[in-house]
């Protein structure tokens, strides 16, 4: 126990040193646009994917604990590279898939814009599933754009809660009447088939998520990249996500593993498919960015409430309500910090 305590203390000390170093660099490069641009992208790219990995890859990691991390990394990383390069090809160099059309390309940067992704690293360390979209993009956005993002985000939360509630209420009903075993582990005979389904659904979700949230990292970069720049972005993010897989998602992975039965491959597959289709729907509506984190939390909340209420799970309803409120509280803290940073970045505060 003493050894574990010393190890934790050492890790916390190393993380604190990292944050101090990154903050110092942010202050030094603020008045050097090219350096600030690439520094902001590197920190934002890693921190955004690290925090949001819980929503896109959380169930994938949780239900594939026995698979070696580098197999998972190569699969997810190759999809990421393909999605980025296809966006570059199909959108004339814009790998954000048009999500930044309402946010002009920055010609210079202020300290708070560079500080935002560093704060995101800290929040991720404390297992807070915050909106990376608001935390980073709000510092670059006008009030009108932020209001539009908020409206789209909260619509997404309630829609995903409603959809998840209906679907898993039906699942719970079928379970009670013994017409499905979707929430049970598949037999050894069917495991390979379900595993294939899950990998396909995760690949679909990961690609649709990148089309929405890749903007959070590339907001620092030119809106139209050269092929060499796009390739460099893809390579840097590829190796960054490799480290995330090496850590198996990190501490924030607890947001997923504490929910009911998500480590089961059938449940993970269904969650990924529904989440992916909801993101496709919102991508089709308009090109405004939105918080996919809130959509994911709405999906998990609707599912948890439906299963607890209707399927006879042993967990008391109070536990489910506590989980839902805890997720909303942590996400709400991130939203408050986002608005504070946006005000500081715009000079309206301080």
Structural write-up:
The chain is mainly alpha-helical. It has one domain (2-346). The chain is built from 14 helices and no strands. The chain has helices at 2-29, 33-56, 58-62, 69-90, 111-125, 132-137, 143-176, 188-213, 215-218, 227-246, 254-257, 265-285, 292-310, 317-346. The N and C termini lie far apart (45 Å). The model has no long low-confidence stretch (mean pLDDT 81).
Topology overview:
Elements: H1 2-29, H2 33-56, H3 58-62, H4 69-90, H5 111-125, H6 132-137, H7 143-176, H8 188-213, H9 215-218, H10 227-246, H11 254-257, H12 265-285, H13 292-310, H14 317-346
Helix pairs in contact: 1-5, 2-5, 2-10, 4-8, 4-10, 5-14, 7-12, 7-13, 8-12, 12-13, 13-14
**Approximate helicity band:** over 70%
User: If helices are DSSP runs of H or I spanning 4 or more residues, what is the number of helices?
Assistant: 14
N-to-C CA distance: 45 Å
Number of strands: 0
